[in-house]
């Protein structure tokens, strides 16, 4: 080839635009802290509504530092499966059902009842 060969650009790798005069959107750095003292820093837009809690990378819930505590008064108490079962059946009734099911299971296994 000759000394004056054309040189190409890599597609998508480089831009011909310059970044002069371009300002990034205003941001704010918000700090959250877990109960065990782990610090979590998150960048938000300056216009964003900041949540009171944030999940850390370790799966713990972190509270906003210098912020209001989240309002948990509207939360319903957690109902377990056992609580819902007790709403439908009484304890003596559950014991009878359990005994019947264990008898059926033991008969299927060939155990003496």
The rounded Rg comes to: 32 Å
Q: Strand-and-helix sequence, N→C?
A: EEEEHH
Number of strands: 4
- What characteristic shape results from the CA principal axes? elongated
Helical residue percent? 10-25%
Number of helical segments with 4 or more residues: 2
Give the spatial strand order of the biggest sheet. Answer: 2-1-4-3
Mean pLDDT: 85
Strand content: 15-25%
Q: For the report, how would you describe the main beta sheet?
A: 4 strands, antiparallel
Report the structural category. alpha+beta
In whole angstroms, the N-to-C terminal distance is 95 Å
- The low-pLDDT segments are none
Summarize the structure.
With 113 residues, the protein is α+β, with helices and mostly antiparallel strands.
Chain-wise SSE layout:
Elements: E1 27-33, E2 39-45, E3 53-55, E4 61-64, H1 81-88, H2 91-109
Antiparallel strand pairs: 1-2, 1-4, 3-4
Can you walk me through this structure?
With 113 residues, the chain is α+β, with helices and mostly antiparallel strands. The chain is 24% helix and 19% strand. The chain is built from 2 helices and 4 strands; from the N terminus they run ββββαα. The longest helix has 19 residues, at 91-109. The chain starts with 26 loop residues before the first strand and ends with a helix. The mean pLDDT is 85.
